[in-house]
Design brief:
The complex is a heterodimer. By secondary structure, chain A is α+β, with helices and mostly antiparallel strands. Chain A folds into two domains: about 5-215, 3-Layer(aba) Sandwich (Rossmann fold); about 220-335, OB fold (Dihydrolipoamide Acetyltransferase, E2P) (Beta Barrel). Chain A is about 25% helix and about 35% strand. Chain A has helices at about 45-50, 95-105, 110-120, 125, 135-150, 165-185, 195-200, 310-320, and strands spanning about 5-15, 15-30, 30-35, 60-65, 65, 80, 155-160, 185-190, 205-210, 210-215, 220-225, 225-230, 235, 245, 255-260, 265, 275-290, 295-300, 305-310, 325-330, 335. In chain A, a hairpin with a 2-residue loop joins strand 18 (about 295-300) and strand 19 (about 305-310). In chain A, helix 2 (about 95-105) packs across helix 3 and helix 2 (about 95-105) runs parallel beside helix 5. By secondary structure, chain B is mainly α. Chain B has a single domain (about 1-230), classed as MetI-like fold, CATH 1.10.3720.10. The chains are: A alpha+beta, B mainly alpha. The interface of A and B includes residues 80 and 133 of A.
Chain lengths: ~350, ~230
């Protein structure tokens, strides 16, 4: 696949504070990249840089092999960003959807706008002439998405597209995005906290933490406080009285990454295992990923959620289901420090 | 008390019967206020947009001057313009004194700070997300500016309605620059002022009613624009 974005040595600062630090990142054409991480981890900043709305303080950004920002206008019309708050122009739904087409002096506006509205599940005859203020949050977000999809963008950047919408809208947004990728080979980068939604959409996931890419994939982040025990072990107490054990954190407030594939699930309390973390929890969610080869299992340990990935075959053999009590096992050394 | 009631009845009769002198003052007011509001919008909207949209040295000072001029007394404007357009003044050769365009110049100066300040405030108050949205939909250069102004259109209309309210109700500049010439430069406010001084309440009340109606229409427009601007 062709390389679309290439970021090298990107650093971005706001008022001198480093908010993004990405030594290298390559995004290929047609890819669907998910960005996850806590608030303030740099997801939105990275999206704005990819949308060419902000130039990075340091480093180089190549788009389709060409350096961006050195001379001329950035290729802003190739990438479009759906903002977190579905901001609509003070016009009708139809005029909102055709805005981008109009300024590009394109034709067949009505046909294209109606197609885009259908794509996001809004019947055009019912919605096209509605004013901007007569829409629910989910409908407004879908109109905003239609205004981007109508452009058949090379790159579609989505910032928390499902944050303020109901479940039905989230499904419609997912379907529209996947259709854009299939039909127009659109490259999608999506920042979200909705991991289950993301798991169904993304081909790859980047875990951002304090402006850095902490891990690839939907890794678990476990933050402190850590308290020292005997034998060089440290413990992060869980609300239900259990504790996660780790080895030599760099500080009491350090954050650790735990790869979902390092977590083993058992349906009965195991005896004689070398792993030092044997914790009891309840399955809260199960989801087949985009490739169909892995199942993400979310397990709640007294309020703290961990994600494990196992094969569909393992799910069948263990016959686990949401609500079931299970035991999770992982080594104290499986926790890597950020 | 009777003469007030009688004045009210006679005033309504003047309006209903289509009294020429009364309607001349109404038509003069509408003509001159239309001229001045159009001129103040043509000059004021671009200035207000620049003041609200761009950052440049001296911007704050210009905003302060514009905000201060909001309260300029109408007679001071009358005096200044009079000095400029009287026969001895630098613009005396234009022959504007005691003409409708002469009054319009004064009223434009009265309306201008309102249009400039309220437009600048409206543009400044546009959502931060708007610029990002327009950019990400592909707008650039002039498209960005025009679309931003269009988004603030209800607030700009609010500015226009406020300025119109000031223009139709002022009397000082119209009196000094128009000379209150019957059938020619006599506006509703100058006519009311004169008729009241003469002790003739009929026409004063008739014109007062029309002014009140206009003020009501302007106010209704203001609240409609305010509602739309907030949505």
């Amino acid at each position: 696949m062709k390389v679309l974005y290439e970021l090298s040595g990107i650093k971005h600062r706001y008022n001198g504070r480093l908010v993004l630090d990405i030594p290298r990142l390559v995004i290929e054409e047609g890819d669907i990249v998910g960005l996850i991480g806590p608030n303030g981890s740099g997801k939105s900043t990275l999206l704005r840089i990819l949308a060419f709305l902000e130039a990075p303080s340091e480093g180089t950004l190549h788009f389709k092999g060409m350096p961006v920002g050195s001379e001329g206008e950035p290729p802003r019309r190739d990438a479009t960003l759906l903002l977190q708050d579905s901001f609509l122009l003070k016009r009708s739904v139809f005029d909102n959807v055709i805005y981008g087409l109009k300024i590009r002096k394109e034709k067949s506006l009505r046909k294209k706008a109606f197609e885009a509205l259908k794509m996001v599940g809004l019947p055009p005859e019912e919605f096209a002439h509605r004013p901007w203020y007569a829409l629910s949050g989910g409908e407004a977000q879908r109109v905003a998405l239609a205004a981007r999809l109508v452009l058949r963008p090379k790159v579609l950047l989505l910032d928390e597209p499902t944050a303020n919408v109901d479940e039905a809208s989230a499904i419609l947004i997912k379907e529209a995005v996947l259709r854009a990728v299939k039909e127009w080979k659109t490259t999608v980068v999506v920042a979200t906290h909705d991991l289950l939604w993301l798991y169904e959409v993304a081909k790859s996931v980047l875990n951002l933490y304090q402006g850095r890419i902490a891990a690839q994939g939907t890794s678990n982040l476990i933050s402190g406080p850590w308290r020292p025990l005997n034998d060089g072990l440290w413990e992060r107490a869980l609300p239900d009285g259990q504790g996660i054990l780790a080895v030599s954190p760099p500080s009491e407030t350090a954050t650790a990454i735990l790869d979902p594939s390092d977590i083993v699930i058992a349906t009965s309390p195991p005896a004689k295992v070398s792993a030092q973390n044997i914790l009891s929890g309840r399955v809260t969610q199960m989801l087949l990923d985009n490739s169909g080869e892995r199942v993400a299992v979310a397990i709640s340990l007294g309020g703290v959620s961990l994600r494990s990935t196992i094969t569909p075959k393992a799910v069948k053999e263990l016959s686990i289901q949401p609500g079931q009590r299970v035991w999770v096992l992982f080594k104290a050394t499986a926790l890597r420090w950020l | 008390m009777d003469y007030i009631l009688e004045g009210l009845i006679n005033g309504i009769v003047l309006l209903v019967s289509g009294d020429e002198e009364t309607y001349s003052a109404i038509s003069t007011t509408l003509k001159v206020s239309t001229m001045s509001i159009i001129a103040s919008l043509i000059i004021g909207i671009p200035i207000g947009f620049v003041l609200g949209y761009f950052d440049f040295p001296g911007k704050r000072t210009l905003r302060t001057i514009s905000d201060t001029l909001l309260a300029i007394p109408t007679v001071v404007v009358g005096l200044l313009v009079y000095a400029f357009i009287s026969r001895r003044g630098p613009l005396g050769s234009l022959g504007l004194l005691f003409t409708l365009p002469g009054i319009a110049v004064g009223q434009t100066i009265l309306a201008l700070p309102i249009v400039v300040s309220l437009t600048a405030g409206a543009v400044e108050g546009l959502d931060r997300q708007l610029k990002l949205t327009l950019l990400t939909l592909g707008a650039r250069g002039r498209q960005l500016a025009i679309s931003s102004l269009w988004e603030g259109r209800y607030a700009v209309l609010l500015a226009a309605a406020t300025a119109y309210g000031r223009v139709i109700s002022e009397v000082g500049a119209s009196m000094m620059l128009g000379g209150n010439i019957k059938w020619y430069t006599r506006t509703m406010t100058t006519a009311i002022s004169l008729e009241t001084a003469k002790g003739e309440f009929d026409m004063g009340i008739a014109l007062g009613l029309v002014l009140m109606l206009l003020a009501f229409a302007v106010n209704a427009a203001l609240s409609a624009f305010k509602k739309r601007a907030a949505q």
